[in-house]
Specification:
Blueprint lengths: L1 H11 L13 E5 L16 E5 H11 L6 H11 L1
Antiparallel strand pairs: 1-2
């Protein structure tokens, strides 16, 4: 099921990072962390495609658990 979730998110996002437009070396990031709400683990609207370097930077700044959509919005604004 997780593979289907990941594929659906990447397909929706055109197999590119939603923040940089880069292709390749992609991961799916949960907007609401699974540690905060396990019911959203397979919710396609809770995932976004990110380049691995962008994903690492997000988690370096905001930690790896209990992340929120608000943190992602702030992160996105900081890249502009």
């Amino acid at each position: 099921e997780y593979k289907d979730f990941r594929k659906a998110v990447m397909t929706r996002d055109g197999y590119m990072c939603v923040l940089t437009g880069k292709k390749g070396h992609l991961v799916v990031h949960h907007l609401t962390a699974v540690s905060a709400d396990k019911t959203k683990i397979l919710d396609i609207s809770n995932g976004v495609t990110l380049h691995v370097s962008v994903h690492k930077l997000f988690h370096r700044l905001y930690g790896k658990s209990h992340n929120t959509p608000e943190q992602f919005d702030n992160f996105k604004k900081s890249l502009s």
